[in-house]
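#struct-help
A.M.: can someone run this one for me? Single chain, 86 residues.
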Amino acid sequence: MADLTTRREYLYAAVQQHGRPVTTGLAEQLMADSPWPTTKRNTARKDLRALSGRGLLTAVWTRDTRGQQRLAYQLTSTTTGEDGQP
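D.P.: on it. Structure tokens below:
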């Protein structure tokens, strides 16, 4: 991954590379190989929320393998239709 200067930039690039919705637990795992390997779940949660607040990620509810709902974050779509609307 490119030399990214902040933890949030690194996490955003990791989410982009992953390509699927990311939970806080998965974000913690993605950060394990980063320059910030001690990032834990609470920090990952704050970073995901901050990226969502900036409009880079969107919070979505997903179901895990046991059928329980979990909050996950996915890339915000920047694609627009013919009318210019997302």
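A.M.: thanks! The longest helix spans residues 41-53.
D.P.: also worth noting: Helices lie at 7-18, 24-30, 41-53.
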